[in-house]
Every structure is written in structure tokens, then in C-alpha cells.
Amino acid sequence: MTFTTPLQRLARLALSTLLLMLVGVGLLTALPGTALAAEASPPVDSAALSKAVVAMEQLDQMRISLASTLEGRTEEPTIETMKEVCKPVGMRVIAIGKENGWQVRQVASKYRNPDHAPANAQERQVIDLFSRHPEINGLWEPAVADQGAGLNYYRRINVEPSCLACHGTKASRPAFIKANYPDDKAFDFKVGDLRGMYAVHLPEVQAALAAAAG
Ligand code: HEC
């Protein structure tokens, strides 16, 4: 049996405490290290996130200002005036998607063009959320299984006074709408109602780059 002095015991205690501290420091530095590694490759980079938000704000503003040009006109909107409102918006939707490698859609549960019907459960849930919460303007969701990896951005579309020329009562719809959209559901809206939403799918960075290159 070896004789240990109080000084030796103290030295051993100090050594084991130091070892414990070193292990602790090692763990502390290792943990944020792993967290940083995960953050280094987010599915979609933050510049693309803000770009999507800004693009949808501009798109919505474009429709509002186009529709406002109809205000004060006395003649009924025709297929020609339609070309000045929701058609350019639809074309811009396609162009924004192509320019960025995103999939951009307009979605509405009360739709005029059947292509704009909700396509999956997530779209139906987000429309429902927007209609229950007028204070929510936009939100992000993870992509759904059949979209592959990435994120979805949704932005609400509200009914403005200028929209009622074509989305007001069923009877007051312009003749070209009655004729061209036999299954139209996009009428009987009131100012402030939820008209629908813009839906943007941003694929993972690699997939987006591939789409932009191709
Ligand atoms: C001159 C008539 C006219 C005006 C004014 C008008 N819309 Fe439309 N809107 C249409 C037509 C026609 C369509 C279907 C276009 C298509 O075939 O894609 C449509 C489609 C839409 C869609 C796509 C979803 C769907 O139902 O197919 C949204 C969203 C929409 N309009 C919102 C608005 C908003 C918001 C305003 C006012 C700021 C507005 N519209 C003003 C005629 C109009």
C-alpha cells in the first residue's frame, strides 16, 4: 500500500478535474461543430428564400395595379381587358418559375381555371389556414413527398375592390367569362376575402441549379 500525502491527493483531484474539464470542452466544441456542419448545407440558400418572397410581392402588386386600370371604366370587361389583368399575371407566374428553376402556381379552392385547383393536402391546409387567419400573409412549409427535397412558399391573394368587375356576383360576370369558364367557381367574392394563393416550390440547391442549367 502506498502512502499518499494530502498534497498528492489534492494533485490527483486536480488532475482528474482537469481531465473532466478537457473532456467537457471537447464535447462543447464538438457539438456546435456538428450543428454548424448541418447548417453549412441548408436545402435552399437564404438568398433564394428572400428572392421568392420578393418575387411574389411584386407579382401580387402587378395584378393589383393592372386591375386598378379597369376602375372607372364604364364598358364591360372583355377578353381584351382580361388580357390586361389575370392573363399577364399567369404568364409572369410561368416566367418566374423558368428564370429561377422553381415551380410557381396560383391556387384557389374557388377557382376559375381548373388548373388552379389545390393539388395536394398541404395546399388545401394552407388555404384553410390563410382563410382562418387574415393576418398571415405568407408562410414556408417543407416540400411534400412527390415534390422531392426542398421548400414551399405560400403567399395569400386578397380580393380588392377592382377584382369585383370579374369576381363579383355570378350574374355580373362579363360575358366572356361566362362563355369561356363553364365550371367557374371564382365569383361571389367580397372585398377582403381570400381569393387564393401563390405557391412556390424551391427545389434543393443542386436540383435548382440543374433545372436552371437545363
Ligand atoms: C377583367 C376581368 C378580371 C379582373 C378585373 C380580375 N380577374 Fe382574376 N381572373 C380572371 C380570369 C378570366 C381568370 C382565369 C385566368 C386563367 O384562365 O388562368 C382569373 C383568374 C384569377 C386567379 C387564378 C385562380 C383561378 O381562379 O383560376 C386569381 C388568383 C385571380 N384571378 C385573382 C384576381 C384578383 C386578386 C383580382 C383583383 C386584384 C382579379 N383577379 C381581377 C378575370 C379577372
Annotated CATH architecture of the largest domain: 2-Layer Sandwich
Strand arrangement in the largest pleated sheet: 1-4-3-2
Number of helices: 8
Radius of gyration based on Cα positions: 28 Å
Mean residue pLDDT: 83
Major β-sheet profile: 4 strands, antiparallel
Report helical residue fraction: 40-55%
The beta-strand count equals 4
* Beta-strand content: 5-15%
Quickly name the level 1 CATH class of the largest domain: Alpha Beta
Oligomer: single chain
Number of domains: 2
Bound molecules: heme C
Low-confidence stretches: 22-40
Structural class comes to: alpha+beta
- SSE succession: HHHHEHEEHHEH
CATH topology of the largest domain: Beta-Lactamase
**Cα-to-Cα separation, first versus last residue:** 79 Å
Q: What does the overall shape look like?
A: elongated
How would you describe the overall organization of this protein?
- Helix 2 packs antiparallel against helix 4.
- It contains eight helices and four strands; from the N terminus they run H-H-H-H-E-H-E-E-H-H-E-H.
- Mean pLDDT is 83; it is low at 22-40.
- It has a four-stranded antiparallel sheet with strand order 1-4-3-2, with helices on both faces.
- The protein has helices at residues 6-39, 46-68, 79-82, 86-100, 121-132, 164-167, 175-180, 205-213, and strands at residues 103-107, 138-142, 150-158, 194-203.
- A hairpin with a 7-residue loop joins strand 2 and strand 3 (150-158).
- Helix content is 50%, strand content 14%.
- It is elongated.
- With 214 residues, the protein is an alpha+beta fold.
- The protein starts with 5 loop residues before the first helix and ends with a helix.
- The chain folds into two domains: 1-40; 46-213, Beta-Lactamase, CATH 3.30.450.
- The chain binds heme C (HEC).
- Heme C binds next to helix 2, helix 3, helix 4, helix 6 and strand 4.
- Heme C (HEC) binds at residues 63-64, 67, 70, 77, 81-82, 85-86, 90, 106, 108, 111-113, 116, 157, 159-160, 162-163, 165-167, 177, 186, 195-196.
